[in-house]
């Protein structure tokens, strides 16, 4: 395609070469020579904005590839065209910009909202502007750029509603099953505040039981530590009564082990006893629940009234 496009360009048939250059770029948009010759054909055809845009693309790609000479040449070609560019400014009111699904197209190309209020270079000639929005009639405008270097402001008019839709409610929503359903407010739910419930009766009893068991183990440890302490004292005294030569290492170690056991039992037992006391004293007391007064109606052939009963 590129070779055929170059032949047509050399023959002066740029109008036929442009579609081939565009097809080659679509297949590979990294081809710098292809875009350069496309820009050259645009310039020969008088499509100054298209040529300027393509030269800018060539300069950018050349800079990215480190080709300073090619970048400078393409930038110079673009600068030579810039002063003669014609521009269009689309002026859209806030009302139009806020319409749901609003879109503006120029010559079939969708324009970003950021480009609505700024001058955008365009080729000389006639340009079709089409404005669309959801639930609105399309508006089409024609802008004629007959002089180079001019800027035209195009005011986007309001879009009238489609016939039969003015004043109507929004379309019905779709249910998950795909059927349309009328819009209706969500159902109102009446909630009754939950009454605070008393702690279970077994909670305090279980905690007190655990405290008593823990305290009992602690007391047992203290008693055991006392007994072991007495035994350690007896062993130590018996060793003191013996001459130094008769004191064996095994006897001294046994006395130290019994003393250490006594100390451990006394400390552990004291901790368990204290923990048991905390559990017992901190256990919640069982609460008595009183039912509020209840009025029961009494109806009969000769009497009508009520009975008030409850726990007071």
Characteristics of this structure?
312 residues, elongated, single chain, Immunoglobulin-like, alpha+beta, 8 helices, 11 strands, 3 domains, Serine Threonine Protein Phosphatase 5, Tetratricopeptide repeat
Short description:
The protein has 312 residues and is an alpha+beta fold. It has helices spanning 2-10, 14-27, 32-44, 48-64, 68-82, 94-97, 201-241, 249-282; strands at 86-92, 103-106, 109-110, 120-122, 125-132, 139-145, 151-156, 173-174, 180-181, 294-299, 304-309.
Largest β-sheet summary? 4 strands, antiparallel
Alpha-carbon distance between the termini? 103 Å
The ordered H/E elements are HHHHHEHEEEEEEEEHHEE
CATH topology-level fold name of the largest domain: Serine Threonine Protein Phosphatase 5, Tetratricopeptide repeat
Q: What is the CATH top level name of the largest domain?
A: Mainly Alpha
**How many H/I helical runs?**
8
Q: Tell me, what's the shape? A: elongated
Total DSSP E strands: 11
Strand order across the largest sheet: 3-2-5-6
Give the C-alpha Rg.
Answer: 49 Å
Give the total of domains.
Answer: 3
CATH homologous superfamily descriptor of the largest domain: Tetratricopeptide repeat domain
- Percentage beta strand: 15-25%
- Annotated CATH architecture of the largest domain: Alpha Horseshoe
Helix percent band = 40-55%
**Structural class by helix and strand composition:** alpha+beta
Unreliable spans are: 175-185, 287-291
Mean pLDDT comes to 78
């Amino acid at each position: 395609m590129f070779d055929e496009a170059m032949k047509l360009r050399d023959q002066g048939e740029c109008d036929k070469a442009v579609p081939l250059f565009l097809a080659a770029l679509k297949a590979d948009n990294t081809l710098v020579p292809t875009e350069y010759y496309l820009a050259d054909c645009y310039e020969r055809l008088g499509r100054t904005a298209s040529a300027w845009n393509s030269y800018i693309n060539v300069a950018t790609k050349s800079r990215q590839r480190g080709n300073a000479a090619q970048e400078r040449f393409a930038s110079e070609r673009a600068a030579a065209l810039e002063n003669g560019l014609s521009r269009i400014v689309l002026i859209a009111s806030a009302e139009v910009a806020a319409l749901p699904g609003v879109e503006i197209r120029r010559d079939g190309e969708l324009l970003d909202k950021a480009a609505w209020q700024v001058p955008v270079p365009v080729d000389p000639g006639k340009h079709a502007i089409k404005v669309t929005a959801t639930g609105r009639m399309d508006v089409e405008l024609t802008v004629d750029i007959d002089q180079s270097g001019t800027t035209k402001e195009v005011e986007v008019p309001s879009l009238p509603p489609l016939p039969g839709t003015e004043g109507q409610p929004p379309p019905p929503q779709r249910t998950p099953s795909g059927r349309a359903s009328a819009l209706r407010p969500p159902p109102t739910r009446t909630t009754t505040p939950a009454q605070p419930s008393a702690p279970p009766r077994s909670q305090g009893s279980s905690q007190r039981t655990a405290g008593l068991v823990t305290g009992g183990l602690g007391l047992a440890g203290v008693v055991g530590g006392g007994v072991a302490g007495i035994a350690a004292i007896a062993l130590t005294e018996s060793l003191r009564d013996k001459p130094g030569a008769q004191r064996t290492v095994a006897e001294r170690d046994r006395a130290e082990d019994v003393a250490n056991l006594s100390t451990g039992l006394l400390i552990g037992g004291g901790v368990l006893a204290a923990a048991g006391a905390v559990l017992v004293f901190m256990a919640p007391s069982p609460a008595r629940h009183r039912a509020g007064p209840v009025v029961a109606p009494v109806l009969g052939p000769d009497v009508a009234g009520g009975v008030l009963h409850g726990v007071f």
